[in-house]
Write a structure and sequence with these properties.
826 residues; alpha+beta; six-stranded antiparallel sheet; 23 helices
Length: 826
């Protein structure tokens, strides 16, 4: 290695650059968390959802795209709940917790969180431990069964905790102690018990470290991704064949959008696999798939042992073929479960929801500056599933959000680095087909041997919550329902048995099995990072598959698609069930260096909207199969906005980008060339529809005095549906099962698989045919052929109450339900 002597002027430039880097900081930080940071509803406030002043105080700023100051050290009111613990709550109720020791800090974090979210924490505990039906009602029994079937016993969680570094074991213990101290406090001061507890007929109870760790395990499994769709795909390919199946759900597609530019690395999901091997794998998997039996609806892979299943959960009875339970005719009223599911308490049943989060980072390396936006999207919940707090202790100064029960900040900033996550949504689990020994339903064949399943009995209790059996006047409208049932849950060498049919069982293997808690090692390291390089090292420690993006005060930006990603067999197609005989085993996990990542790309910007991480990645059995939209995937809209900001990156510019991203139907600008091509030669109604769409700027939030949106909104939505129907018709069952329906409720004006398939494959002539059909439908719907009359009411976001809090009416935006914006530099 040679060294070049620098001229004095060059030395001065280096010193100035070093000085600017050394004095870097978070210049500005803002955030918003609607409806508010608190979830406390008092007993007297139950009828109206009243309690804390911070239940709804972030709703209007969110609607107006305003955000609060989120710099460290906000002023506020102080409380001192224990020696060495200080909590200052700012004007939005966000607690800043200071502890003289780590134990005091995490004790205070547990106390502060419990003050605001004790009910939500109780629900999270019951979801993670599979005991929700015991307080909410028998309608949630299936969820309890799934959670206990697919997760761990208390003994297994204890063993997982024991493998954590001692510092994190102590963190969990201190955090739990703080929660329990607050539980003891409210039980000693009944007027401060959240109103939902009396409504459920229970009192707050203390938490074990296993309870809190189970919440962390649950979050680490479900936040990044969910189970694959192999059985849906199996049904589709059996009905339509491999050619049509592969058209609607290809492994890769020309023009696919990725976060990492091709020039910065391909990062293949299966290194070395060729297109020829992919074609051969699909043919081989289809030969296996075409003769496989499909499990009946409601099958959960469990065996009935004893007890009485309520009628609302009877679909799981006898799923393993070990007998059928009798329903208790005297207490099984089908209406009870429905009432429970619709009550306030029963709405708190599906915490941590995978939505459509996005993030953008832009840097100016010459000025050592960066701007960063992160917006995790989990749906409009009251309270939200995330909780904002600030922490100060030995070696730690950080502010951001976590989930109740998570002793770490997962999204936020410290004094030098801002960081965020989105769901990675890659395939980190596989469904294996186990061939059972005839007459022995718990024995199966594996590599020429007969293996015995590991099985255990679990008792599931259920009880109708009191509020669901009373009418508004407080009069009993039907008898409450309670009971218990014992079910047998089994595992194979691959994992939990999720389905059984005939002489087959389907078992799912999870990449993070018994390693979910390890992710806290990496997230805690991010909390104390001083540079993007530190974040890079931290990402080697996480096991989950959440995308991470970060920016530091030196002007560096980075992106990682981390976690345990299995290297799948090249002989079998990952979109379908794999043979469990040992011929389709994973070949380990991608090494850290081969996991998609990039720091300071040459183009100076990064974005991710649950996007494919890299150009070498494929869409398999993952829950984000809409990424096969290719050039019409929603993040292609960000790919147009981010380069504009990169020319002159500013905080205000990032705020403006977030407005455009969250209020424009993404594919409208992306589809402009095809729409214009279709308009040439269009006549009559088709021409009217196409001109209406092209004359619309894509905004679904601009309204008139009657709160109705422009005619382009209805025209575009109807046009997409007609295109979808035309495109999917030749694909048969595969088209409808995989590409049918509408976009999910987080992306109402986005496209689903079928609509994207139509946009990217249909010719202008078919666009015109769909536009003519749309004209007929719009004329019928609005009673007029004049586009000026095609104005519909503005769309509002679906909302869910996670307790007695009233759900706010918030207009729909395709944006994060927690958002943060940062400027970093000298």
């Amino acid at each position: 290695m040679t060294f070049r002597r620098l001229a004095p002027a060059a030395c001065l430039l280096v010193l100035l650059a070093f000085a600017s880097t050394a004095s870097g900081r978070i210049i500005r930080a803002t955030s918003i968390l609607p409806p508010g940071n608190s979830g406390f509803v008092s007993l007297t406030g139950l009828p109206t959802g009243a309690g804390s002043p911070h239940l709804y105080d972030q709703v209007q700023p969110y609607i107006d795209f305003q955000r609060k100051d989120a710099m460290l050290g906000q002023p506020g009111t102080e409380e001192d709940p224990a020696p060495g613990v200080k909590i200052i709550r700012d004007s939005y109720g966000v607690p800043s917790i200071t502890g003289g020791t780590n134990a005091q800090l995490w004790w205070g974090a547990g106390w502060g969180m419990a003050e605001d979210r004790l009910v939500e924490l109780e629900i999270f505990r019951r979801v993670a431990r599979g005991t929700l039906a015991a307080v909410v009602g028998p309608a949630e029994l299936q969820m309890d069964i799934t959670d206990r079937r697919d997760y761990y016993t208390a003994g297994e969680v204890t063993a997982m905790l024991s493998r954590l570094p001692v510092a994190f074991q102590q963190r969990y213990a201190s955090y739990t102690a703080g929660i329990n101290a607050y539980v003891d406090y409210v039980n000693a001061h009944p007027s401060e018990i959240p109103g939902e507890f009396p409504a459920l007929g229970i009192l707050p109870t203390r938490f074990s470290v296993v309870d809190i760790a189970s919440i962390g395990i649950y979050l680490a499994r479900v936040t990044p991704n969910g189970d694959g769709s192999e059985l849906t795909n199996l049904q589709a390919i059996q009905a339509s064949g491999p050619v049509r199946f592969n058209k609607i759900l290809p492994l890769r597609i020309p023009g696919q959008v990725s976060t990492i530019p091709r020039r910065d690395g391909l990062f293949p999901s299966v290194p070395g696999r060729t297109p020829r091997q992919e074609r051969a794998a699909l043919a081989r998997s289809y030969r296996l798939a075409r003769s496989l039996p499909l499990p009946p609806s409601g099958n959960m892979g469990v065996d009935y042992v004893s007890g009485t299943l309520p009628s609302s959960a009877s679909a799981v009875a006898g799923a393993g073929g070990a007998g059928s339970p009798a329903s208790d005719a005297t207490t099984s009223d089908p209406g009870i479960a429905t009432q429970a599911a619709q009550s306030q308490a029963a709405a708190m049943v599906r915490p941590i929801h995978v939505g459509g989060s996005y993030m953008v980072a832009v840097n100016d390396p010459r000025a050592h500056r960066a701007v960063f936006f992160d917006g995790p999207e989990l749906g409009i919940y009251a309270p939200e599933e995330l909780y904002e707090m600030e922490l100060h202790g030995p070696g730690l100064d950080v502010r951001g959000v976590t989930a109740p029960g998570g002793p770490v900040i997962a999204i936020g900033h410290n004094a030098h680095v801002a960081f965020g996550v989105t769901a990675g949504l890659s395939e980190t689990n596989s469904l294996y087909l186990e061939r059972l020994v005839p007459g022995h339903p718990d024995e199966y064949f594996y590599r020429g041997r007969i293996l015995q399943m590991s099985c255990r009995n679990e008792v599931f209790n259920y009880r109708t919550e009191p509020a669901s059996v009373l009418n508004p006047a407080g009069v009993l409208k039907s008898p409450p329902q309670s009971g218990s049932v014992t079910l047998r849950l089994c595992r194979t060498i691959h994992g939990p048995v999720q389905e059984r049919v005939g002489n087959y069982a389907y078992a799912r293997r999870y990449a993070t099995w018994e390693r979910e808690l390890d992710t806290i090692n990496g997230l805690a390291a991010v909390d104390t990072a001083r540079t993007v390089g530190d974040v890079n090292r931290a990402m080697a420690l996480v096991t989950w598959n959440c995308n991470m993006m970060a920016a530091d005060d030196r002007g560096d930006i980075g992106y990682w698609h981390p976690g345990l990603t299995p290297i799948r067999s090249v002989r079998w197609d990952e979109r379908l069930p794999l043979p469990g005989d040992g011929s389709a085993e994973w070949r380990g996990f991608l090494p850290v260096a081969e996991r998609p990542h990039v720091i300071d790309p040459e183009r100076h910007w990064l974005d991710n909207w649950n996007t494919l991480p890299s150009q070498g990645w494929t869409t398999g059995n993952d829950p984000a199969s809409e990424r096969v939209a290719g050039p019409f995937f929603r993040s292609a809209w960000l790919d147009r906005l981010a380069p504009v900001l990169a020319r002159h990156p500013t905080f205000a510019g990032m705020e403006a980008l977030s407005v455009k991203a969250g209020t424009i139907a993404q594919q409208r600008p992306l589809d402009a060339p095809r729409l214009k091509a279709a308009l040439k030669g269009a006549k009559d109604g088709a021409a009217i529809v196409l001109r209406t769409i092209l004359g619309w700027n894509g905004s679904y939030v601009q309204t008139d005095s009657q709160n109705t949106v422009g005619p382009g909104v209805a025209a575009w939505q109807t046009f997409k549906d007609k295109l979808q129907a035309i495109a999917l018709a030749p694909l048969g069952v595969a088209g409808q099962q995989i590409g049918g329906g509408e976009p999910n409720t987080e992306h109402i004006f986005d496209v689903n698989i079928g609509q994207a398939y139509a946009l990217r494959t249909l010719r202008p002539a078919v666009y015109r045919r769909a536009a003519a059909q749309a004209f007929t439908a719009l004329t019928s719907r609005f009673g007029s052929s004049e586009p000026a009359r095609w104005r519909a009411p503005r769309t509002y976001a679906p909302e869910t109450a996670l307790g007695a809090e009233q759900t706010p009416k918030i207009p729909f935006f395709d944006r994060g339900t927690f958002e943060e914006v940062f400027e970093l530099g000298p």
